[in-house]
Every structure is written in C-alpha cells, then in structure tokens.
Amino acid sequence: MLRTHIRVPLFLIAAASLTACSTAAADPQSPAAKAPADDTPATVTVAPATAGRPVTVTAKGGTLATVKVVDEDGTELPGRTTSGGASWSSDRKAAPGTTYTVEVTSRGPGGKETKDKKSLSTPAADKVNKLTLAPGKNTTVGVAQPLSIVFDRPVTNKADVERQLKVTTSNSTEGSWGWLKDYSGKDRADWRPKAYWKPGTKVTLDATLNGTDSGDGWFVRDYRTGFTVAAQSQVIKVDLDRKKLTVVRDGRPVRTIPVSGGTPGGDKRSWRGTAVLMAKEGTINMNSETVGLGDAYNKDVDYSMRLTWSGMYAHAAPWNAPYFGRANKSSGCIGMSTENATSFYASVRVGDPFEITGADTKGVVAEGNGYGAWNLDWAAWQAKSALR
Fold it and tell me: How far apart are CA 52 and CA 219, in angstroms?
C-alpha cells in the first residue's frame, strides 16, 4: 500500500495551539471568578410633598422598578418614570391636607431589588374653593344649554383651573370655555359649542381640580357631571314687534302664540337677543321691588319660565289678555294666556333658546345674566378662554 505523507507548516500548528488556549475554561481559582456580585442598593429619595405640585421620587446609584402612591382613601396617584428610570413624577398634583403612602421597588447596579415604603403629608388648605355645576347630572336639556361652573371664591389662576376642565362629547363637538362674571358677582366659566348642540349629543365634564390653587382657595376634590341633549331641536322665536312667539322644531314652525312683551320707552322693556330657558319654576311670587320697579306689582304668577337672573320670564299673564298679539304692556316679561301657557310650559325644556327680537328693548342679554353667551360671535367667545 502506498502511503502519502503531508507536511503541515509549523506556523499553522502554532496558530492552532494558540486558538485552543484561547477557548479554555477559566480557572475557577482565578480572582475574576471569585468577584462577588454588586449588591449595593439604590438610594431612593421621596421629595417632601407640596400641595399643587407633583409627588417626585428619585433613585441614585440605580433605577426605579415600580412606584405606587396612594392617599388615605386608597386612591392612586398615577405617574410615570423618566430619565431612564432614575426619577418618577405623578401626573396629578398633590392635594392639600392629604397623607400619601409611597411604595417603591428599586434596583441597584447589580440588579438586586429593594423595597421602600414612606409616608408624606401636605398641610391643610387655609381656604377652600368650591363650585356649582349646571345643568344637573344626568339631565336632558335643550340645544342651547351650556356647561356652567360658578365658583364660591374668586379665581385668579384661571388658566391653571381651565386646564383641569375636560369636556368630552359623543360627536366631537367643537366648543370653548369662556370666563365671565355671574349675575351674582362670582367668577364663572361656561363651555358652549360653536353652534347649538346637535340633538342627541352626550356631554361629560371631568373637572380634575383636586390639588389646584384657584388663587384664592384650593380645590380639595374632583367633580364629574354629564347630560344629554334632547333628541329634537326646539327654538323659541319671540318677535316683540309683531307680539308673537313661534315654536320651531327641527327647523319647522309648529306653533304660534300671541304674546305681550315689556312696555316700550322705559325700565319695563324686555331684553332682546338669545336667552336660554334656565328653569321651569311653576307658580311663584313676583314682586316688582326685587327688580327695581318699585311697587308696580306683587302677585303669584303661574307657569313661570325663567330666562334671566334679572327677572325676565315667560309666563301666564291673564291680566294682560286685551294686549296679547296687539301691544307690549308687561313689566319686562313675555306674557301669554293661561291656556297657551299651560301647553307651552309642558312642551319647553330647560336649555331651549329664546331668540328675542324687537325695536324697543333695553339691550342684549349679557352673558352673565342667565346664559347669554350666544349673544357673542364665535371669535369673541373663544377670546374669553384663559388659554387663548
């Protein structure tokens, strides 16, 4: 048998030897194998709580794995981790007079987890601001009803407050907040759509005000309300020159009622412009002294429908029967027969707009005198937002 001899160069043998040496297992007795893991924990700091500011947590020499902040009622203060896990900040501001429990899980440089639990409290508020919402929760209203908030105390930090007022609608209705003085003299914020609501719209307000400084008092709770716009549009057109009232439903006139408006030429004239039906008050006592008209009248009035805070109503006025459809002889209200008032009262809804026209009136309904925001064009109303 013939044998073939292959000669391998020495430099290849040497290289193979070097390769084999480089992949050998590490010596378990070497210093590198014996180095312990770094179990040093991260240094966690929870900043002192300050009302009106977020709760903050930081980790030095490590990262934050989880952070949970809850108040004494068990309500969690949500937040997020930033700076690669080195810090955490709550999305909501700390509220005054509240104790929070902060539970933190952090990781040191070697990955070991450490748990910390701390408690922190904020001082109680020296002044508390509250608010009144309209319309009422879960109500059904007409197409002109605004969201309206009246504040107990002055609001000087209007932009800060407005940022916490979130309106959502079922059909992405365009609208804006506007700040005004209520007829009572208190600060007020109304949210109205660009045009009348679409029938059937569902509206929700989330006022996440807890921990917000109004400038003259803290809010110490959140508010939530919602309402639905009626399925049918209804607009009441009042022509004081022709002394008639027309009910328009879904764009079509369905009824006309002869009326008598405010007496021309003096303080008994009616307002013009768009007023919104604020309340159906039934039978009430009307006293002229309460609206600056001396002792002109003091009587119980049926089917009273409030249109302004200053005292303009639509109501039954049987004492003015000779003037319905003929002359304006009321003390500023829109009067009609008891028969017509009975059925009209049953058909109208809070939030229905009364569009009033007439040559001899005492001016346009102001935005704070009831719901007069519709008397401003859209650009003028938007300009009343504190965020524009």
Answer: 10
